[in-house]
Amino acid sequence: MAERWRPETHTFHLPEGEMTITLKDVAILTGMPISGDAVIGPQTKPEGGWGPLIRDRLGFDMPTTTPIQGRGHPPLNAGQVSVPWLVSHIQQEFVINDETPEEQVERYARIYLIGLVGGFLFPDKFNRWIQGIWLELLTGDWDAIGQKSWGSAVLAGVYRELCTCSKVGAKQAGAAIFILQLWVWEHLPMFAPLDPRPYRRNDDELNFLQNLPYGVK
């Protein structure tokens, strides 16, 4: 699909004609909102760097000098957060029960959002670093986070990455390429995996699936 992508028109050139991923596709496949405020973050890091912001809003300090797993890069490096370090921290620290303070639950939710958005919806090519922009964007007002057009931003990222990886010599792709995979399965069914039991789901499964995005089904 990358080889058939044309950066000039942002469409796939196929023998039958041109096709592309639309906002409607993103909304139906993922359930992400495609209307609302634009996803715009700060162009520069906050005064004092990212460390104080992380400490204030997430409740922990990120090392800035300790190498991770012998790679020689600190968990917080040049405005980027290490994905392996963040995942490891979540696994070690995430213990939520009925007695967990609401403030702590909120902090855990923000950490999860940062990992989800920065490491899954907008990952780098190797899924090792989360850009610092998400730290400030996802640690602000809850209502403002929910009112943003996340689907539009994710689709723009997919378009940009397709333009990059369609060039000669490209070997990896970042962004939410899973959307391209779901889109291909839906519109070009000859590439889709076969469901071994497409019409034999029980009532509990059907009730669970009906409220989830089409891509999950």
From TrEMBL:
<dbReference type="InterPro" id="IPR044824">
    <property type="entry name" value="MAIN-like"/>
</dbReference>
<feature type="domain" description="Aminotransferase-like plant mobile">
    <location>
        <begin position="1"/>
        <end position="194"/>
    </location>
</feature>
<dbReference type="InterPro" id="IPR019557">
    <property type="entry name" value="AminoTfrase-like_pln_mobile"/>
</dbReference>
<dbReference type="GO" id="GO:0010073">
    <property type="term" value="P:meristem maintenance"/>
</dbReference>
<dbReference type="Pfam" id="PF10536">
    <property type="entry name" value="PMD"/>
</dbReference>
<protein>
    <recommendedName>
        <fullName>Aminotransferase-like plant mobile domain-containing protein</fullName>
    </recommendedName>
</protein>
